[in-house]
Write a structure and sequence with these properties.
This protein is mainly α. It is built from 7 helices and no strands. It has one domain.
């Protein structure tokens, strides 16, 4: 008999127990923020500046009518597609190459995936 999806996800735990286990386990989000290093913050800042530079470039191209009307009406599209594609490729790489016994693949996510997403959200707030 094949296990059900609910059984695989739940493992006999209540929702509260699941979230408690998740919160108490090491995850790349918390590890990246609490590692005592400012690498994450610097990357977020620099990537945010990059996203804002893309946005300013798109607004400038729109102002001087150097791009078509469709793209000019959506100046955030380029940054959005860059973010979506990059994060999707990183997630796909992790899914295809992850080995549960080795944490090395998750370094890519904690050092680049998280800063890339947070920077995009910060830039999205600014524009």
């Amino acid at each position: 008999m094949e296990p059900s999806v609910w059984g695989l996800l739940n493992n006999g735990r209540t929702v509260g127990e699941f979230w408690k286990d998740w919160r108490n386990s090491t995850n790349p989000w918390r590890a990246a923020w609490t590692d005592g290093d400012d690498t994450l913050e610097i990357r977020i800042f620099l990537i945010t500046l990059g996203f804002l530079a893309i946005h300013i470039t798109m607004l400038t191209l729109k102002k001087y009518k150097m791009i078509g009307e469709t793209l000019a009406s959506r100046p955030t599209l380029v940054a959005n597609q860059l973010h979506c594609t990059s994060v999707s490729l990183m997630a796909l790489h992790l899914l295809c190459t992850a080995d549960e016994s080795k944490p090395e693949p998750y370094v890519l996510w904690s050092q680049w995936g998280i800063p890339f997403s947070i920077a995009y959200f910060f830039a999205d707030i600014f524009w």
